[in-house]
């Protein structure tokens, strides 16, 4: 819906594309749309290559990072700063995406990726209030002091989002323990252990030069 809105608002009364900046937003939303579509196909157990859903997630994040990295020409210093800080979060998400593929059965990379996505969302929301406040603007786009304040707010998001992820993780773990989903003989536990042991078995086969 967001991509459709960007396309509609980019056209004038003669259906001519006039808002070229909207093309960047359309590309970004399209990347995430592909990611979610591939993820749905993977969840529905369609025959797609392994890890392709994770690969499309990395592709969506990389597309977003490239668009924001080349979106700063001629902008005021404060606007450049908030976009640059956002770009750092996106790069962290790309790194977490690769770690999710590399350590598929580990929970920390998954939590890290969720953290960067949440961080993007809360920072996007706050940047909207900085650049387009609903009240009379009190931000000076050329002020070094205001840029420092924006950086401090970014750090606050960094810590608060980390705490929120930990709280959500603790809540979910508590619920699972209450249902005994992670008991020693539970199916979920056996699946996690088998996934974790499988790469080691494959490495052992290559080391011994034997095929079972």
UniProtKB/TrEMBL annotation:
Location(s), subcellular: Membrane
Keyword flag Transmembrane helix? yes
Respond yes or no to whether keyword Nucleus is given for this record. no
Q: Which InterPro entries does the annotation name?
A: DUF716, TMEM45
Ordered alphabetically, the record's keywords are:
Membrane, Transmembrane, Transmembrane helix
Q: Which family does it belong to?
A: Belongs to the TMEM45 family.
Q: What Gene Ontology cellular-component terms does the record carry?
A: membrane
Q: Which residues cross the membrane?
A: 17-39, 80-101, 113-135, 147-172
Membrane topology type: Multi-pass membrane protein
Q: What is the lineage of its organism?
A: Eukaryota, Metazoa, Ecdysozoa, Arthropoda, Crustacea
Q: What is this protein called?
A: Uncharacterized protein
- Lineage, top-rank taxon, reads Eukaryota
